[in-house]
Please model this.
Amino acid sequence: MELVHPDLCFQDGNVALLAGGCHFLVHKGVLERHSPVFAQLFSAYDWNRPNPFRDQPILEVQDSVEDMAFFLLALYDGISHLKHNTLDFPNVSAVLRLATKYQVKRLRQDVLNGLSQVWPRTLPQWEIREANATNASGVYEPRKVLPHPILIINLARAVDAPYLLPSAFYDLSRCYPSDTAAGYKCHGTQELHHLSESDLTYLLKGREHASRFLSTFIVNELESREPTPSCVHIDESDPLQRRHCQAAFDAITFEILRDVNGVVCHRSSDPLFAIIDAELMQTRDEPAAHFGTSMRVCEPCRSAFSAAVDNARDALWRKLPEWFGLSLHSWP
Ligand SMILES: [Zn+2]
Model:
């Protein structure tokens, strides 16, 4: 029996694509218009071959039924309905892979534009993405909403989309290396996805760079940080009061180090988060029983530290391609 796709089988279709044993009766002109690869395939085709499908010629292609269905739907209906979450990832991945294979440039670019909102080139976009992955109770849960970065890295490699890689590598570098080496098992298909051996090496090296960067930041900018010349406590007669801001920076250092060890938030290796958290601790209303106002520095000291935080995070973001062994024409 002939398998026919229930949706993508037009009565006035004039070419049947046979993918994974299933027929898609579609329009030759539409495919030719969007894809130089299909145009080439059609121009080389022997249109007098026997055994047509519903009187129309059959072109067999080496794609799965699911991939071809997602791709043709995107071609006919557009991709405005697509989300870049876990649920839609098989669809996004199929459209991007086939749009690349068949050189449907605009479709490929549209998918890449969407993906780059979640796997961005700039730090401000990364902040938005991180905020969107935090639930209403303030719990950060990227894996519940975003595709696993191993999937993104492998997809970016497959379709030559290198600008998705720095943020995906950074995202993955925050996981335990043993988890990453074990691979990611897809909940739906139970398929196990691994990084290539070379990408795993790049990841581990980048993770070490990121970790060293945080240590350097803590030593240079946080631990026993000198008060600014305009510190409001600088002229206090009581030596303890005079050291107020320095002591507060030390208390923050202690908190950050606890966090690095994953004791507090389990965001164990996220320097971008740890560095901004060092600033946020100074203004956050924490329960008094925890650490009260011991981490509050004066406004001039906070402002000077805030500038150091911004500089460090910008510098970190700029370093990502180098750390993870990626050569890009420009970054960010
Ligand atoms: Zn101060």
User: Anything to note?
Assistant: The longest helix spans residues 197-222. The CA atoms of residues 174 and 269 lie 5 Å apart. The mean pLDDT is 92.
